[in-house]
Amino acid sequence: MELDIQCEEMSPSRWAELLTTMKSCKSIRLDDCNLSSSNCEDLSSVINTNPSLTELKLNNNELGDAGVEYLCKGLLMPTCSLQKLWLQNCNLTSASCETLRSVLSAQPSLTELHVGDNKLGTAGVKVLCQGMMNPSCKLQKLQLEYCELTPDIVEALNAALKSKPTLKELSLSNNTLGDTAVKQLCRGLVEASCNLELLHLENCGITSDSCWDISAVLSNKSSLMDLSVGDNKIGDSGLALLCQGLMNPNCKIQKLWLWDCDLTSASCKDLSRLISTKETLTEISLIDNNLRDSGMEMLCQALKDPKSKLQELWIRECGLTTACCKAVSSALSLNKHLKVLHMGENKLGDAGVELLCEGLLHPNCNIQSLWLGNCDLTAACCATLATIMTTKQCLTELDLSYNPLEDEGIRKICEALRNPSCNVQQLILYDILWSSEVDDELRALEDSKPEVKIIS
């Protein structure tokens, strides 16, 4: 049994009702419910008396250090079987880390700890690392985003990594680490016996100077499948270094996020080689890089390669225009694997989308999710988009936000949604102006097809 509640104010009567339900739940989620430390006292009792409870999510609540202290009393009980604990943005400080250290040291069932968006600081996380080093700790996933960490944390992290072969996921994004600390961390990862599968280092102050060391991790850790270094100024030179590790036969990368990394079309030669030859790679994000049409055309050549197994391509806000759409269309007509294509915030225009649709209509194309928000589209292309919606059975998600489609365009899209052949389940239409009559039509359509979600 699962309890999943979000964004609900808890009255005393409602809370009492839920407590009864919680006693038999395997998973409890109470995100954004305005919980406080007093609620944690009750939750501690639930943790203690419900041995089937394995997952507890309490994100975005004002629990504070006092609340975590209550929770940990339940977590330290022998009857506790909790495996996953989420405490993101719960107003915790370093004071909570001593209590959590005790849990890490004494509770082998706990395999996931998510404490991002809390002001734990370097001193607090050093205490957590001490708990990780205890032989009883079996932690597999540690999320420390936005924890106000400094470069001084790396020595403690490396010591924990060295002693913790169970660790599979480490997220340190949005902490001011810098190149020197990231290099040190990468050396520790290469030496550690852990089989790390996920490493997130977004917005960590990384430049091209760190990329050779990250590349070494990719070459040495065949377990690493998910790497995110987005929002770091690595540039084309850094990407070239990363690709040396990515192209290593030992590297088995599946998901690679390189958004806002100061890449240009010069990087697309290396990226194309990666897409066309690294058969494990299924998802790549290049959002907010100045790739331009020339770079996109190189990527499209890679997508045509039979060895490419890419399923998701995110190229939003990459300086693309109508000029690259013929190449994209050609790639779509040949690539059977691509399922998600994000091309929003590019000046594709109606003519560009008309070209894209030629590829989308090809029997080889298996696109499920298509994002074209803010692409300078008008009602003129909506008839063709409607054809895609009614013809392409695999298409289940379509984003047309921030385009001046007006009543004429929205009506064509609605007509397609009414068609029994249309399988679109989610239509995203943010910030598009339409009349009250069209609004009524959209609401009526939702009522008649409850499986369709229109987000506006």
UniProtKB/TrEMBL annotation:
This is Ribonuclease inhibitor. Forms high-affinity heterodimers with RNASE1, ANG and RNASE2. It is found in: Cytoplasm; Nucleus. SUPFAM superfamilies: RNI-like. It comes from the Eukaryota. GO terms for molecular function: zinc ion binding. Ribonuclease inhibitor which inhibits RNASE1, RNASE2 and angiogenin (ANG). May play a role in redox homeostasis. Required to inhibit the cytotoxic tRNA ribonuclease activity of ANG in the cytoplasm in absence of stress. Relocates to the nucleus in response to stress, relieving inhibition of ANG in the cytoplasm, and inhibiting the angiogenic activity of ANG in the nucleus. One of its GO terms (cellular component) is nucleus. The gene is Rnh1. Its main location: cytoplasm. SMART domains: LRR_RI (SM00368). It comes from Serilophus lunatus. Residues 316-347 form the C2H2-type domain. Keywords: Acetylation, Cytoplasm, Leucine-rich repeat, Metal-binding, Nucleus, Phosphoprotein, Repeat, Zinc, Zinc-finger.
